[in-house]
From TrEMBL:
SUPFAM superfamilies: Acyl-CoA N-acyltransferases (Nat) (SSF55729)
Gene Ontology CC annotations of this record: cytoplasm
GO MF, one annotated term: L-glutamate N-acetyltransferase activity
Any one GO biological process: L-arginine biosynthetic process
InterPro entries in the cross-refs: Acyl_CoA_acyltransferase, GNAT_dom, NH2A_AcTrfase
Keyword tags: Acyltransferase, Transferase
Record-given protein name: Amino-acid acetyltransferase
Organism: Immundisolibacter cernigliae
Pfam families: Acetyltransf_1
Length: 167
């Protein structure tokens, strides 16, 4: 197996402690919102993981926010595995899942819009995200002082418009 090989698969309940540890470290660094193990157990079916040689290298989740809107949540790659294409592969897998269930829009709140731009996401106003704001943001400790950037990928755009999200 080469240095860059890893596999992406649906998360299992047995992954929850490792997912929790990875997200907790990123939450402590201010990059993500914290999630409890109990919350991760309840939402484990939203998650996919990337692993190499049995080590959890990255995670990401697709959460359905409304009849046509999904969110990429809790996307994190362990620092030792950064810039090896794992985050991109996880996000492409979540985009594919969003297409399979019939979502028309996929959003994320992020400090790294450049990462999402490569995959066809565009920066949008948070005012365009009412479902997100009312369901989740009102419960968030950052509400009213949120400095994350909203990005959106239209999954129903003409083929040419989302060519960069293919692959
Ligand atoms: C953002 C994150 C998931 C990227 O994961 P990764 O596996 O390192 O990213 P990839 O290797 O797939 O990057 C693909 C491309 O995205 C861009 N990119 C990746 N990380 C970037 C960063 N921090 N800043 C700007 N661009 C970035 C680069 O163009 C990169 O290609 P390159 O390495 O050839 O230059 C990872 O840095 C991370 O876990 N960050 C902390 C948590 C976080 O911010 N999550 C996003 C919340 S929505």
């Amino acid at each position: 197996m080469s240095d860059r090989e890893f596999s992406v698969r649906p998360a299992r309940l047995a992954d929850v402690p490792a997912i929790h540890a990875l997200l907790r470290a990123q939450a402590a660094a201010g990059n993500l919102l914290p999630r409890t193990q109990e919350n991760l157990v309840r939402h484990v079916r939203d998650f996919i993981v990337a692993e190499r040689d049995g080590t959890l290298a990255g995670v990401g989740a697709l959460e359905i926010m409304g009849p046509d809107l999904g969110e990429v949540r809790s996307l994190a790659v362990a620092p030792a595995f950064h810039r090896q294409g794992i985050g991109e592969q996880l996000t492409r897998a979540l985009i594919a899942q969003a297409g399979v269930v019939g979502l028309k829009r996929l959003m994320a709140l992020t400090y790294v819009p450049e990462f999402f731009a490569r995959l066809g996401f565009e920066v949008v106003s948070k005012d365009d995200l009412p479902e997100k704001v009312w369901q989740v943001c009102v419960k968030c400790y950052k509400f009213n002082r949120c400095d994350e950037i909203a990005v959106m990928l239209r999954l129903d755009a003409p083929a040419g418009a989302k060519a960069s999200a293919g692959g």
